[in-house]
Amino acid sequence: MKTEQYKIQAARWPSSGRQVMGRVEGDALIVYQAFNPHIAEWAVTHQQFGGPHYSFNRMSWIKPGFLWMMYRAGWASKEHQQHILAIKLPMVHFKTILREATITSYDSSFFSTEKEWKNELERTEVRLQWDPDHNPAGVKQERKAIQIGMKGNILRQFCTEWITEIADITPYVKAEHKKVLDNRLNELILPYEDVISLKDPAIEKRIGIVSV
Fold first, then answer.
1. DSSP letter at 136?
2. Mean pLDDT of the chain
3. Of 11, 30, 60, 70, which has the most beta carbons under 10 Å away?
4. What is the sign, positive or negative, of the torsion defined by CA atoms of 70, 121, 89, 91?
């Protein structure tokens, strides 16, 4: 895993706007999810999601931003989110997911009417949200972070066909969180992340990417 000092990343990252931030490895993007030990252990062992504790009947959310995942999971401290998984997803499949995505709240820049938005939201198997990103200590930022929820057939494809690697990075997460708790942010090392160019204007328009 390529890493970088947080203070260097923070200086390079955009301070505002809506951009997909994440870590690219070859032709794949790393996305994150947090699960309880039963689901996480089964996933790492089988290199896909499933097993007796995983449900395909609920929406499952992926996050390409490491710090957004840390905020949501409390750095692997919240109930049912004690294990952080780094999931390698080929970019071609990530783009397939984004092409199906519908934003979770009405925005006139995406849809001409609220009825049009509601109809698409009911139809889609993919939902996306732009939420304030957070720094390592959990302070809200102006920059927006994306998270994508999947259900139905596209979730099953993601879980059982598209993933090329699943790694449990919880020990690393806990070690870096200790630096945050000790206020040693100058020593904090994060996965190397940057703005991801999707190279597809139609997708960028659909998900509402905004550079500031």
1. T
2. 95
3. 70
4. negative
